[in-house]
Amino acid sequence: MECIMQQDKQQLPLHEVQLCLVGKTSTGKSTLGNLLCLGANFKTSAGVASVMSMAEQAHIEYLVHSILLVLLNMMGLGDMAHQPELVQPKITEGIISLVGGIDFFFLCIKKEHFTEENYLIVMYLFRAILRDQLLGNLWLVVTHTEDLANNTQAQAQWLHDVCNNKMFDHVLRMVGAQKVLFINNRSLKNKQMDKMYTKGHELAKDLLLQVMQSNKLVQFTIESLEAAQKEYDDMKAAAEGERAAEVARLRQVEIDAVMALEKEKARLAIQEAELQAELQAELKLVTARAELEAKLRGEAEERLRNAPTPQQLITKGGGCVLF
């Protein structure tokens, strides 16, 4: 897309600024892109996550600010509904499309809420795709803030309130509280109603252009991206290696426990067999002893039965026994 805005008849030398809009689906990236680049006609997601075939670009000249703005409207990180393996290459493709690197990232969030889902998506951007290398280029843009955009006291109160949210506080500490921008980019798709926001839109645009004009460009290049993703891939591989090692260790512990149990079972079986053998031997001994005693007792009883009585002895002897 090509959209040129003539702001001053006397054209000063332009310096190119390459800007990338990132953020969760439905955080106002397309609306912000249309605000910065009139005529770009970026389509909004309407809250539906989708993996675009390619990121959208637009160009505009801001002669008063001496800026040639090249804007990249990146796919929503809400597309994390898809597998990271599908999302990451699409974001990489978008960054590669900006030859020479990216000067600024505007990370869009809505002021209404910062949920755990928002936090996980933003941290995925920081940790998995762009890493900490993007923080020098990144500004946090709070969208749909028509009630805060021109009220520094209200902005300070909002920051104080949301910092009670530990997840947002963590993100804010990473980015820096001085790099939070409040803008009114709301569009009601109604020309009459949009007039209400015209001044706010112009102030928001001026604020963003001042940021791009007054801050030193710190380019995030494809080399930065590759280094960031290699760092993540290495960390992921190391973590997977540690997990695999831990699984193997636990498996070995389980195997050792089973083997120890089987060994103990075998030892107990041998011990039981030995005890059974001893018991059988003892039983045989007791049985033999009882049989011997019974035999001896029977023989003694037999001898008693067969022994002559006193009368038989007297008669047999033929004598007389006096008492």
UniProtKB/TrEMBL annotation:
GO terms for molecular function: GTP binding. The keyword Repressor does not apply. This is AIG1-type G domain-containing protein. Residues 218-283 form a coiled coil. InterPro entries: G_AIG1 (IPR006703), P-loop_NTPase (IPR027417). It comes from the Eukaryota. The keyword Nucleotide-binding applies. Keywords: Coiled coil, Nucleotide-binding. Residues 18-196 form the AIG1-type G domain.
